[in-house]
Amino acid sequence: MPSHSRDRGPRALLTRLYRARFFAYIVFLFLIFYKLVLLHNNLHARYIDMSRLDDVIAIGSVMLISFWVFWLPRRGRLAALWILDLILSFLIFADLIYYRYFGDFITIPVLLQAGQVGELGDSIRSLIHPSDLWLCADLLLGLIAGIFFGIRRWRLRHTLRNPLRSGSLYTQPRTYSYSKKPSWGRVLVRRLASGLIIFILGFAMTLGPIRHYTKTWAAGLFEGGWWNISLYNVTGLLGFHYYDVYRYAKEHLGGKPELSAEDQQELQQWFEQAKLGRVVSNETFGAYRDSNIIVVQAEAFMNFMIGKKIGDQEITPNFNRLMQESMYYSNFYHQTGQGRTSDADFSSQSSLHPLPTGSVFVRFPDHKYDVLPSILKDYGYETGAFHAYESSFWNRLNMYKAMNYDHFYSQADYKMDEAIGWSLGDKSFFRQSLELMSKETHPFYSFLITLSSHHPYTLPANIQELDTGDFKGTIFGDYLQSVHYVDAALGELVEGMKQQGIWDDTILVFYGDHDNSLQDKEPYEQFLGKSLTGLDMSQIMNQVPLLIHLPDGQHAAVYDEPAGQLDMAPSLLHLLGITTKNYYMMGNNLLSGQERFVVLRSGAFTDGKLYYIPSPDSRFDNGSCYDLATRKLADVEKCRIPYEEANKRLSISDRVITEDLIKWLRTKD
Ligand code: GP9
Ligand code: MN
């Protein structure tokens, strides 16, 4: 036994704690748990409260990742705990920042596209709050303590070795009884056993409650996997990351899952049924055969400010004017997930849902899809994608090749004569894109992706033309300012098309890719001058505008029925007279006159009468089922049948993408 009898006072206490086997470990557990709670309280996720069982999962999951430190000698163990603390704190911090922007957690596929983080520099800086510094306070203390004990140890050794020179003869009595030092064998067994016990405890504390959840209210959650927030609600943050690693490994390292005969039949039946509603021959079918098509996918361009004014200035005067001679879909939804811009692109071109995690562009660019550019190329179109940014972003270079575009004009093809935000301003981007298009043969299909209204929405002062009034100096004001600029660029694009003589034989499509990531309700209430319900906010954040201008300005009207990004490809093909009966698409044909059902990636859906918002705990009956006629909550049972259809669609789409099923389905045609 060490003879501590003479050691009293805070220094001695510190030394004893330092030597105690479990003390540092318990402090470590407590710190990481505290940080997980800190993160959780910062999420402001609706419905999610941390219960006692969630606390057990959180502590258990920390034990699962740290049990092995007991296999190390004491100093190694302390160093390992500090390093683990560093890594986990960084993970929590990264998740926090990511959540503030995307409302989601980082996953392996997202990390695979992490090359993009550099470009998000300004956005990231604006998302860090000073209070986040608490996440690293203990690391600093740990470092100071490490240095303190290091120096102390060095001095003690020095003194023991050289008592006279150090002049500290009386330090010698601070001795320990080394004679009773336990044998190596015993030390080893003790270390192994401690680690093992922590592992078993951690395992039981993590998986026990999760198993309980999945046997009760979270049944089917892991099979569906359509929303990471629901998973987090069950597994906690670390559990979510373990599961994400497992899911990724299973998907990419294991063999392809076998499609059962039953699944095959269900899949084929679903697509057959979808065809019946989509493939119709009416007066609009082929009415614009061989027209050129220009599709503009506008960055973070939402629907709530369409037709609205600030002071006496319209936010989107050009869009509003164009609306008079176009088909405007006032209840059009973006259906994106983590893949943001690339998801909007994927869904609009392929008429499939994006994936619950990561971007299809990054994860499965090599799989087979029935996409607009490839189909139109088969029908004699010259096809091009235009985006004045790095060609590798969102893995576009690879994906666009796979989508069969004839050209992909990226940053290197543009003259940087109007620097805004990440790249070239949209006005110059449109002007130069029109020049590039003028070299193409007719008919052509051009897909343009804008960038000037990207988060954090700061425009150079000399091009700010909107007086944002009370919103001046806020990010919401900057957002309005930037969409006002994009709207002006749209006006110039229309003028440019007229000057180039293509206005009368080109279908112009304009839609927003996704929301602006500004989730605080207050500025929307202030801007719209009314208080907003959960339903209002959900629609605001999920609706983007869709405008289709036909060459002769026909069918101009406001269309209120719901629609979504998946509907673009089948609708355009219909107008061109290209049947979609041989394609595997899941969206609606907006011109078929059929009732429409729109499913969002979160599992929310609407048929125009009902609007369902899922609960993060993924329990159907905890979701909110709204009656759109009264805009009041209805009996959730009213949403049950469409809820099942929505989940079926999402899971069919996921299987088609991840298992490369279009290739297989073709062999059955
Ligand atoms: C960059 C642009 C932005 O190329 O597509 O992507 P986002 O951050 O909106 O997904
Ligand atoms: Mn985007």
Structure description:
The chain is α/β, with parallel strands linked by helices and 669 residues long. Helices cover 48% and strands 10% of the residues. It has 24 helices and 19 strands. Strands 7-6-10-1-11-12-4-13 form an eight-stranded mixed beta sheet, with helices on both faces. It has a five-stranded antiparallel beta sheet with strand order 15-16-17-18-19, covered by helices on one side. Strands 2-3 form a two-stranded antiparallel ribbon. β15 and β16 form a beta hairpin. α3 packs antiparallel against α9, α3 runs parallel beside α11 and α4 packs antiparallel against α7. The longest helix has 32 residues. The termini are far apart. The protein binds (2R)-2,3-dihydroxypropyl phosphate (GP9) and manganese (II) ion. Manganese (II) ion binds next to α14.
